Fold each of these.
Amino acid sequence: MKFGKCCFLAAGMIGSALLFTGVVCAQQYDMILQGGHVLDAKNHVDTVEDVAVKDGLIAEVAPHIDAKEAVKAIDVKGFYVTPGLVDIHEHVYAGTGERDSYAGDNSVYPDGFTFRVGVTTVVDAGSSGWRNFEDFKDHIIDRSKTRVLADLNIVGAGMRGPKYEDNLDDMDGEATAKMALKYPGVVVGIKSAHFTGPEWKPYEQAVKAGTIANIPVMIDYGSRRIERPLYDLLSTKLRPGDIYTHAYSGLRGEQDPETGKASKAMLVGRQQGIYFDVGHGGGSFSWTVAIPLMKSGFTPDSISTDLHTGSMNAGMKDMLNVADKFLAMGQTIPQVVTEMTWNPAHEIKQDQLGNLSVGAPADIAVLSVEHGSFGFVDMYNTKLMGTEKLNCQLTVRAGKVVYDLNGISTDMWDAQPTSDPKQAKRWTSFTERPFGGSAHQRFPASVPVK
């Protein structure tokens, strides 16, 4: 029996169970996802393809790849296969014990809220500043299976409430940039958030840090102040490639009060090359703003959650729920997938992510579409009805299955295994079965193996 290129499997029967006894030479691939509808905006792919994975990287994308070429072949017909989702606005600096703080109790541990919705990369949006970033890195970034990147808060102490976030004396662009440059590719942006004062200093120092470190700035514009109008921020203060989050909140001049469409500030920002991010959160997404802006053609560059303890059980549930809202407003599945994959990866200058190019990290989401009648809730606890809902069936991170909703990657309990259990580590991070998990060892003699 041939398994892959020049690869023969020696097998013997013990009772009625198939016992794998070894592989003379390994298959070409660790895993193949077969028959799914691939959506990959970077490579302009929107068709049925097979995706092969090897050593944690995308190895091949083609109309047909022989299942025998891989240790594990997974049938994903009827599903969408996308790059792993990239959420550029979350708060995951958990575990410090600090009350009412995004560098503490307001944050969540990432792995509990990512893989189950297809997210493989998150950016912590300013929970830490240059003073406490290394603690965040040690306790969260370096210990998470999710790829965790960071925007450094321009406030050195991080996002820890008004006492800290309004402290102009702790806004140091040079010190922030120095820390960012120490961890290139991990620190991917600078964040200013929640500032209530009239001064421009937070934004000027954030841009200074971003310019020195050559990374984008993300702005949560805090309190609306006539001394620093949104028009000036987006037309003169920010640079092309910087990111304005909470774009559909309507709280800071995003909407023209007369027409209901995008304000002049938003339009000039788009002309200037500013990216507009959803950043739904617990209080930053309104149907009365989003629907008119979307109808007038002001679509988001990136979909993000602003996930934290105050948002995840309110109107904002998770990444796919936010995407569902944009489907309900008329966007297509390829559009929302682009806004959750390639666009956010490009915004943070991490172009190796958010795509399925050969050689890219094998971060993959397998999504299904449920049809029915669904209610989607905004920050004011009002809803819009939609007819489509995205569900995550399978998530692959760094070439390993890390989430499988309905067991599509697994064998039936009473069936012969479809791959050698000894090679399971090549395609899954799940706990190994007891005793190596062969069919002979899984079933007592009284239970026949079909």
Amino acid sequence: MIWRCPKAIIRIVWSQWRCGSLSKTVCPTDRPHGIYGETIGCLCLGQRFKTGSKRREKKAEAAIRTDYIDEALYDFSGYIAADELYDGPFCVLFIVDNHKFKRICYDVLDHNPTNEDITRFFRGFKRMLNARGLTLKGITTDGSPLYPDPIAEVFGKVKHQSCQFHIIKEITKDILKAVTQARRQLKQKKTKCPRGRPRGRKAKQITRKNKHIQKRIAELFEYRHLFVKHTLTHKEKKILRRITRGLDHLRILRELMDEVYRLFDRRCRMDTALEKLARLRRRIRRFGVLGDTLKKLWSPNLEKALTFLDDSLLPATSNAVERANRRHRKMQKSIYRVRTRDHISQRIAVDMQRDAYIAGLTKTIRTLHSSRSGENRKVG
């Protein structure tokens, strides 16, 4: 049965609270809207905190175009690294001194870069060099097809080096794909057995054979790094001979990888390296399967990656600009709201200005440490 109560059992007492503001509160209090006490009428009437309210991105961007460029190009080495960085719908173009690791100039695009964008970007950098009487001796880029034509158009016959790391990365990727294909071929040799325990002599032989094949597949997967490692120890060479027993094409791939590493030896000149590359290509043509696997060896970027052999000061990789890209990615994690073209440009300017302060800050810290250590010696 449901008992109906015509009246409230517990009395509700309304208390009249005072409405106004106190000396210790920032926001005024309002009349209560329930039986649980007072409520705050407005949370936005107080004074705004000054921490973080001052934005210096625009000032930093203006300072980068004047003072920072003069300081970065004061001890310009003559060798740069250029690369593009994709940030959602935007693209950031960087030019970094490849010896001093200083970001010289940048540009933010709201679309994928074209040859015209790269040409305009390089021409702006060339105007900076001409205004200060500097010349460009060499430029390092990755294997992107965006750079060769603009470099030849703007800088003429300047030395263009393709990044050694990117070239070797593509070749090693193809070799690891060949090892994966060898594992799949071994898997196809396994004989399918009925469910349950093997019964009979033939079934046990099939089971032992499948276990042996599975063991070889597991070893090829576990030691796949030995096919692309730069230098192998005596123990690793022994393991490689064991896991490639009966797989001659994998042994040949390892030998070809050793010859690829020998191409980038600083002790030889570019002409000698090109002769080695020609012999390597003739050797690969003998094997039809390997020719399809190592197509990257016929890429023109491989020949450009050997330019550094004739110039001891030309860096072989574009690590300087890749470091700038990693710096930008790290900034994205901490400030994820920066996603407009102007904000990205301004935040990069702030970061570059911070790099300019590091030298003076480090010098000040060393001076303080040396002075304090001298005082401690006098006291002792």
Amino acid sequence: MTARNLRHNWRVFRAIRLVAIAFGLLVVAASSYAQTAIQRVTTTSLTNAVVLDAMPQTATAEIRPFHFSATDAQLADLRRRVAATKWPERETVNDATQGVQLATMQKLAQYWATDYDWRKCEAKLNAIPQFVTTIDGVDIHFIHVRSKNPNALPIIITHGWPGSIIEQLKIIGPLTDPVAYGGKAEDSFDVVIPSLPGYGFSGKPTAPGWTPVTIARAWATLMQRLGYTRYVAQGGDWGNAVSEVMALQQPPGLLGIHTNMAATVPADVSKGLSLGGPPPAGLSDDEKHAWDQLDDFYKHGLAYAQEMSNRPQTLYGIADSPVGLAAWMIDHDIRSYLMIARVFNGQTEGLTRDDILDNVTLYWLTNTAISSGRLYWDTRQISNGAGFFDVRGLKIPVAVSAFPDEIYQAPRSWT
């Protein structure tokens, strides 16, 4: 969830401490430390974190170091395409009810074509240990930063759509080196952040079948390949689906999971939402709030998922036009879009113009606009009709964070 997750990078870090508390494994520092920690993350702190992971600790015959550098020709072509965008006329309303507004996209395009610098993002990425390993015939790219604390708890963190590893960069320093942010050494994590198959720097599957079920098994293989015998998992959006399936599969060593987009919706609520009917009687205020959020999303915000679930290959336009790709990605849900519109209108938010364009540019440079969408199609093929947020019946420990700007704020009663 690009805008939501970028906005809540610091909140995800705070939330991960709940995993440790829930499992009784360790106690991470107080929330004031967490807020300060994220505010202090810089390229320098990320570089310092890299020192904690000497490359020979990870690199093996099965695991290869990874480095990415876009060519000057690629970046020049991107700027040329953005500048040459053929614009439609302005929307006929004064709000976002018809979609991404022309003024927002033109401000985004102007900054992208003239002032934005991908090389800054590229430098941050290449300052962090990255690797590739082949699992079930597909190259899986991942970040792996070890803490200097030998007793650190390993965690595998999974992004979603239209997200990427870029969303997680700000949490690496505080998790691997909490001492540098006012915390304690025993609060440390070893951090593993993979790119989903078909996303970012991971390989693109050449046949159907990569779903949260197969990805969950691949992540267990990855953690085993890295030598971890005990670990936790975290995710939101597709990352939640993968983490919850891992909890169902219970691979050896998985102690529990944390999610910031939990599947908690009761059966009667899910049925009512699918039928477009009124909410069930007797909902509390928190439950009614969650119903209203989900009802709005299903009625007005789900079109992107429906299209990619049914016809992802049809979306040639977002593979050919960078502005088309950016518009498709930022029209994810109304709260995310309005926040992004404010950013490009000069207002200060929990993310910057570069945060947004770093993520979109990664999709463009890796040509993953369509390959990433196939995850929706593949998953639909194994669907039993259950909703994305339906209860899974997990048996191992789970920690849930309920942020107000997720698609829905999971009520404590449902979780």
Amino acid sequence: MKKDKHLSVLQLTRQDVPDVKEDTKTRYDWIPIGIEHQDDYYEKLTEAYNTSTTNAACVDGTADLLYGKGLTTNDEEFSTQLQRLVKGEDLRKVFFDLKLYGNAAFQVKWNKEHTKIVKMSHIPVQLLRAEKITVTPQVENYYYCTDWSDMRKQKQKIKIPSFGTSNEEREILYIKEYEPSRFYYSLPDWISALQFSQVEAELSNLHINNIENGFLPLVMVNLNNGVPAPEERDTIENMIEHKFTGTKNAGRFMVSFNDDKEAAPTVESIQVENLHEKYQYVAEYAQDRILVAHRIVSPLLFGIRTANNGFSSQSEEMKTAYSIFQTMTIQPFQSLVLDALYYALIEGGYGERDLYIEQLTPLVILADTAEDTDSTIEEAQEDVDDAMINTETQDEEQMEEELLLNPSKAFSSEEYEIL
């Protein structure tokens, strides 16, 4: 009599390329933004930062360079006032949010007459949601909630008007990059490496669980009690998948209780050749893709050493890499924040002010620059800062032209007519 045989291949969880969606069709007054679920965008980015060592190093290092030595101005009389308006700690957090989340926000406090800004403080952008647009071409309000996943906390949310749209004492100055496919939020520059950050996290889970469970190999389980019905097979497969698959279950063992030896399941070890080399390749590839997404030319800038750095010497590598990174990444981020601050100070009763960030330049670069130019390290640092001074002192016609080209820069009600 021919015996039935059935071989099952368990389909593990499938991962897709992250698709970030602004959900404009909900019944809410605000716009959720999500990847796998309706409003898990900020949660996923935070998880990728907390669980990926390379990603965390890139975000932290870039945020430090963005903040540099802080915000300053050439106007000595205004300098002290500027430090009271925008504290260094708040600006550092804004740059960090902008790098990690692709969005950042200031909470602007006005005087009672709403004629002058009193203070601009950081507000966690992951706790803000944009209000749906109705008539005007910009977001008029933002909602603040300490936990958007908790329905009870959502009922306690606070509605705060957008900067330049009200006469209230508190407003939100929201900072984001323009993106043609999104209106309410923008994405971080490293979003394409989100999956590779998850890969690093899963490799970490895999290795630590293998260590804790004795590096047991992959196995095939043969059940020798006959071929059960399809429903029963599905149940058994689901139980085995739940207990033994995934990086968190790496190295777990199985205990079988049987009526006799003939009916006992057989467990065969499946040896995978060069498994350690495969893991090493995946780890190095994931790290490389994360660095590419962050546009980091040389990992040495952030204390990350890789096998191939591509330069003849570390000094040459750091100078070239820093120059490229400063021009292509740091300066655009800083300009985005400086433009917002510049506009806020004009509207806030302080007039046009030259603002710039004192740059944080590696000492080896300053030393080489000073030697090449026959100057001191302090003079070389001043030259770097002078090159980054914000000269955004455009007149009203120039601002109107820019708003026509880029409506996302509109802040106040007067600019609706321009649009």
